[in-house]
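P.,

For your records, the input lines for the assembly:
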Amino acid sequence: MPESFLLEVGSDEIPARYLPLAIRDLKVRAEAALRSARLPFAQTRTCGTPRRLALLVSGLADRSQDAVSRVRGPSVKAAYDEDGNPTRALLGFSKSLGIDPSEVTVEKENGGEYVYGERREEGRPAPAVLAQILPPVVMGLESPYPLRWGDQGWRWYRPIRWVVCLYGPDVVPVSIAGIQSGRRTLGHRTLHPGPLDIPSAGRYFDIMQQASVVVDPGVRNRTIVDGARRAASELRGEPVIDEDLLSEVSSLCEHPSAFLGRFEGRYSRLPKEVLVTAMKHHQRYFPIQDDEGNVLPGFVGVRDGHPEKGMDTVRSGNEWVLRARLKDAEFFFEQDVKVHLEDRVRELGGVRFMRNSGTMLDKAGRIEMLARSIAGSLGLTPVDKDLAARAARLAKADLVTAMVREFPELEGIMGGRYAELEGLVPAITRAIRDQYLPRGAKDRLPETGVPSAVALADKIDTLAVSFSLGAEVSGSADPFGLRRHALGVVGILMGHGYDADLERLLTQPIELATEVVPDAAPDAAVKLLQFLMSRVEAVLTERGFGIEVVRAVLGGGEKRIARLPMMADALTALARSSKLGDVVTGWRRTSVLAKGSGSGEASPSLFREEAEAALYQAVTERTGALDSLFEGRGYDQYLDVVASLRSPIDRCLDEVLIMADHQDLRANRLALLKAVSRLFTRYADFAHLLPLVGREG
Amino acid sequence: MGESLSFCDVIGALQGFWAERGCFIMQPYDVEKGAGTMNPFTFFRVLGPEPWKIAYVEPSRRPQDARYGDNPYRMGYYFQFQVILKPSPDMVVEMYIESLERLGIKREEHDIRLVEDNWEAPTLGASGLGWEVWLDGNEITQFTYFQEMGGMQVNPISCEITYGLERLSAYIQGLDSSWDVVVSPGLTYKDVFLEQEKQGSAYGFEHADTELLRVVFDLYEKESRRVLKEGLILPSYDCALKCSHAFNLLDARGAVSVSERQSYIGRVRALTRDCARKYVESRGYKENA
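Structure tokens returned:
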């Protein structure tokens, strides 16, 4: 009869960042293992705390199912001798299946004849199956940094300490990481520090409750959120709860109890970001804010323990730590505002940028120049170009402030704050603040205008220097976070729709990098462009464009990357329309011959045939319109016009011998084709669309 | 927290607790070092298969962390209480919590949490996985399962528990600053150590002779290599510790560029690694690197 099943793996505290994944993976792995062992079940559920992972299965059958599978054996030729007696090959085969040689059947397959036999596997009792499949399910949970413990070479998140394994009321004997299963679990470390016996799988949640363990992360999350709201309401505020912090806090306890802590009001004059960093990142507290978003002088902490007992001690202990941190921060802040950012720039000479590439002062000088010219490429006004240069010069100054030395995650943000306090204009303070944005794929972009120019200058400079140093990014090896920088560059240009040419943006940064890096890699510019374009490819793919369209559009000549999504849109539409064949054929017929031919312009005086003059005329008539459509981003129409060249192209190539004996005529005809093919190749490499032809519509 | 323990009582209580659990209570090692892990009775003894259980107070010198006595917790000379348990016992975390109870910290009245913190000591070629222990939000202990030492994987695994004595005592005594900690009746931490901290800070940041320190580093490095060839592993390691301290002073003086820094660290690591290898070889341990 089906029964409930419980597996609880008890351990030292599993790191918070792995716990949610571990709970999820356990479910996936367990279900896969049960299925492949043919052990039917109604439902599985996993949950856990830092000290335990639990797998609960309802309606688990008491036996695995019998299975019959057909197995192919040797060919008939090999299976029987001339007299039709079974050979050693057949005897071996049937023995391996546990059947008599006479039980095999013969079937034709791929022109040959083979013997087939049935492998019968009998179902086994659930406990025996579980003892076999569970250890690899648990030990195979993946941790990026598994810990080895004891002396048997076991590796897991943290040492495994006990295993409970129950099928209904019975212990299923299983050994995981050298530990024999039983029914004994351990309670909460402080609220119920002792063993408890679990009488049967179905009683697990009761027993956990007795043990003061909230084993379901969802319940812990709700308890924390409710408690945090209640605590914050004492200050007439709302807790600021972000999902990551909630998950972390919830994964740090077995029995969460939220409490309100306070700090002196005078610390509220510290920049909001400092307060939030001290609370969130360092202490895992939820900050509290009022309706207007002001940070209130208090926090919500979460204790792993009783909601009341000893709570005053816990509260004052936590307040004590935070106060010490804020006192430090206040001291740093007061020291920092005594010195102007401009005066700190000089100190950057004592801070290295990267190995063999000078100091941060050198970098400040470079990005000052770059921000100015990039601002130009983004079409900013002369005034904004000056502002961008000035912001870039000051951008790195906060690296030598006490606050950023203490809280490195506040780089940029503090600089922006200090700039504000100095009374610098918003364009500058925002540019300093936003220089590191976006920090990830989902992060916000720097504001448009001056901040974007500065953020681009900083990132492109870092990339240019790294590639000049010969940096290689591959797989997991990305020591300087170059992928993130590249994604930032691409994100800003595409996200804000800047019509700047990526390739040209790299010229000056590479030159400047060459001056500071000894023996700069000669192929840095090429490799950097490739690297950035590979990020563009990733972005386009992520936006849902088909791979053929993405490759096609990247294979064209356009490096104003903000245009590529529109161009890809038009190509996608083309790929679904009847004109795809016209465009692809037009491209193919002109570019195959034109490839490799010289430059030179076609001259009407050398035309001898009507068809070539007609093609020439068709193209000449359309060139002006095509250029302005291309520049004006009328990409759908552009492709329409290009498609309309199909018939003059076909006619010309059908009627005219391009590779004429006469050299001048031949060169002239190739020049004509070259000119026509350029209309295609500047848009895309249509070779990638060939497989789509005939599938449109 | 009722009658609070003095600094001295805290040390006494921890020593008593761990002695009862079979640890040999050792005295500090007499060569400057940045952390208790560098003590040769930890560094070497966690290699190889023999069980090893010791506990000791270790002064740590970190010239970079000196603050002229201005910072309540950060100082260039301070004390760690260090426990090494090899192999790591099954219920070691529970044992640790019991040690806090010995200090009058009743578990049900506090919040004790283990927050992931992995550890690396590049000069020792050492790494470990473990936690910081938070007591009511205060980081009071570093708890580590060593994974590598001297560039070699260790087996069996040792557990290292490092209590921050100043912080722990300040918290027990309800003080805002380590300098106010009562070390014994009528005597505070600052009465004993503040002057040393001030002068030590001034020396490390302003006055240490960088040329001399570079020479000292080079000479001890040479000596370390020379005596290791003679099979004198422990004296060679002492010289490596001297190098490490000279480097720390140079670093505090700001006399080391970023790339130089890597090279100094690499040189110390090479010395300690060679000592560890020679030790493993001389003890006849099966190489498991």
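Two observations worth noting. Chain A has 26 helices and 18 strands. Chain A has a mean pLDDT of 93.

Regards
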